Amino acid sequence: MVNSLKELIDEPELGHNDDPEERFISSGVSWENYESLLAKLENNSHYRVTYLDEILEIVSPSIRHEKIKTNLGMLLERFFYSKRIRFVPLGSSTFKNKAKKAGAEPDECYCIGEEKKVPDLAIEVVVTSGSINKLEIYRRLGVTEVWFWEKNQFKLYHLRNNSDNEEATVYPETYGYELIVTSEILPELDISLLEQCLLISDSIQAVDEFEQGLKAAEERNK
Fold it and tell me: Residue 12: its pLDDT value, please?
């Protein structure tokens, strides 16, 4: 693994293990260096770059991580289509705010309805823990809901604290987000069904069971 920001910028690959989830962390990184790194990696979608208060973190996701991320996006978009919910997928786009000293690249993110400067929903697939608290970044950016997929289950958080505050005053222990059971921006989505189908390794079977679950729920609600 590289040991300095300069090495990272000059190094084409972070590692050569069979399926690494490699992580580089550096403190005291200026906003200018952060933006310089983003420009350097502009045509390389493999890395996820996170920035908060001069702490920079770069992750090289594992194949397992990317499989989960892709299947999750596939199932969610099936849900959007089935419910006729208009959405704008923004993938792992970079969202940053210089004044708030925060920037992130979610694994998946969506605007619900029309496209906005900041997504309504950001999703993080957690395989190995990082040192930067993503909820604080998303609070500063003003993302309404954040979902974490970790240890084969979801944790959903809904923003209750105004992102203009310097520090979270509501739910400060979770940086202004309330831990919730059901999504408030997608209230019809059965999170337990989504969890079950994400654990199915075969993509076609996962989609089939997910769509069958959606149809069964519609029948029950008639």
Answer: 44
